[in-house]
Write a structure and sequence with these properties.
The structure is a homodimer of 250-residue chains. By secondary structure, the first copy, chain A, is of the alpha/beta class. The first copy, chain A, contains 10 helices and 7 strands. In chain A, helix 1 runs parallel beside helix 7 and helix 8 packs parallel to helix 10.
C-alpha cells in the first residue's frame, strides 16, 4: 500500500529539515522523497539529522517545479495550516490516509503525492490549487505551524496506521504477543478461593462481615486478564503466607 | 481534557530536541513539560528549535529522577520502541489517547504523564516498570527509532485528535463510569514496596534470588489500572499478613 507514495518538499530552506523528513519517512516505511528546488542539497546537516536514513536522501529526486514533481500522480494532497480565502476540501491526516488506502485498493497502484511547503510561508495559492485535496493537521490556532519534519512524521504515521489496520483487528490482547497463555476460568476461581481462605486466616477478612473485599479484589485482578504464570505466582504467594502462619503457630 | 497532561523527557542529550519537543507540544495544545536531568538546560539551541514556544520552555519543571516527575500521576505511559523480555501491555498512540480521555472523564482530573527516554537508548527496564502502560509508535522494524521531538509530535497529535473527536465509542476501558479515582503512581510504588517486604517475610521472595516475581506482579496489577480503594485493600491485606506473622512469632 505504501509502495508508491511520494513526499514532496517545496523550496525547503533549512537543510537539517530535509534530513529530519527522511528519518521520519523511513521510520514509517515511506521511501520516495522529491525535492523541489531546495536551497541546498545534499548537505552535511541533512545527513546528520537523517540519523541513518541516508538511503532515502541519496535516492531523492530533485526537480525544478511542483508541476514536474506531481506530473504522473493520481492523487495529490497539499498540506496547509492556513485557512484560505477560497475554501478547499480539507481533510485531517486520518481521513487522508483512509482515502489513500481506499483509492489504492480500488484503482490499483499509481503515484500518490503529499506536498509540503516552505518553512516560513507554506505553499502559494497557485501551488495549492494544483492539488486535489488539502490536508490540515489540527494544530492550535495562534501557534499552528509545525516543523516540516514533524508534519511529515504525523502524515507518514497516519498512512502507516491505515496500512496496519487490517492486521491490528486480529491483534492479540495488549498489542504484543504474550509470553504465557491466559488463565482459565477455573484456575481463577480456585485462586480466589485461595485468597479468601488465606485472608480469613490472617484476620483481614471477617467471614461474618466480608464487606466488599472479594468483589473488589476480583474486579481488580480479572480486569487485568491474568495469565497462567501470574496466577501461579499469586497462589505461591498465598501458600507462603499460610505456611508462615502455620509454622509460627505450632 | 488536555489540561493535565505532562510530557516527561528523561536525560535528553541534545538541547535542540528539547526545543523541538516544546514546539510540538504547543502546536497541539499541551503545556506541561518536565525534564528529568537533561544534559543542558536552558540553552540557545532549545530556544531556537522552539520557534516561539519559549513559554513552554520557561515553564518547564526540572527534576532529578523519573520517580519525582511522575509521583502524583494517576496514569503513566512509557514510550518504547523495543520489545522487552517480559511483554508489557502495549498500546498504539491512538489507543493511548482514547484511554486518556476516558479515564479523565470517569475519574475526575489528575495528572497524566507520558514518558520519553534517551535519544540513543530509550528508557531502562526499571524506568519502564514504573509506568502502567507502554506506548509504541508503530514504526518500521529495522529503523524504528523516531527523533524524540517527532515522537512527541505523534503522541500529542493523537491526544489532540481525541480531544476533537468523540472517542468514547472506541474507548477500550471499562465501559462504565468508575466509582473511585485511580491510584497515584506514588501510592502504587509504596504498595509494591509493601508487597516486596511482606513476601520476603513469608519466605516467598528470596532477596538473593528474586527471579521475576516483582516484575510479573507489577505487570499484572498495573495493567488493571488500580483505583485508590483497591490499593488500600491490597495494603490492608499485606498489613494483616505481617501482623499475623508478627503476633504468632512472639
Amino acid at each position: 500500500m505504501q509502495a508508491d507514495i511520494k513526499i514532496v518538499l517545496v523550496n525547503t530552506t533549512h537543510s537539517g529539515n530535509i534530513g529530519g523528513v527522511a528519518r521520519a519517512m523511513k521510520n514509517m516505511g515511506l521511501a520516495d522523497l522529491v525535492l523541489v528546488a531546495p536551497k541546498s542539497f545534499p548537505s552535511d546537516e541533512a545527513s546528520a539529522r537523517a540519523a541513518g536514513a541516508d538511503d532515502i536522501l541519496s535516492a531523492a529526486t530533485l526537480v525544478d517545479s511542483l508541476q514536474q514533481a506531481i506530473a504522473g500522480c493520481r492523487l495529490v494532497f497539499a498540506t496547509s495550516a492556513r485557512e484560505r480565502h477560497i475554501p478547499w476540501p480539507i481533510m485531517d491526516p486520518r481521513e487522508m490516509a483512509a482515502v489513500i488506502s481506499t483509492v489504492d485498493k480500488d484503482a490499483g497502484s499509481g503515484a500518490v503525492a503529499i506536498v509540503f511547503g516552505r518553512e516560513d510561508r507554506g505553499l502559494t495559492n497557485e501551488e495549492l490549487h494544483l492539488c486535489q485535496h488539502h490536508v490540515c493537521i489540527p494544530s492550535v490556532s495562534g501557534f499552528s505551524s509545525l516543523n516540516i519534519a514533524a508534519a511529515v512524521q504525523v502524515i507518514a504515521y497516519e498512512i502507516r496506521m491505515a496500512s496496519l489496520t487490517d492486521v491490528s483487528a486480529q491483534a492479540p490482547q495488549w498489542g504484543t504477543s504474550w509470553d504465557v497463555p491466559l488463565a482459565e476460568q477455573q484456575e481463577l476461581e480456585l485462586m480466589f478461593e485461595h485468597f479468601e481462605s488465606t485472608m480469613v486466616k490472617t484476620g483481614f477478612l471477617d467471614p461474618e462481615n466480608p464487606r466488599q473485599f472479594m468483589t473488589r479484589l476480583r474486579r481488580l485482578i480479572m480486569r487485568a486478564l491474568p495469565d497462567k504464570i501470574e496466577v501461579n505466582i499469586l497462589r505461591g504467594m498465598l501458600t507462603s503466607i499460610t505456611k508462615t502462619i502455620g509454622s509460627t503457630k505450632k
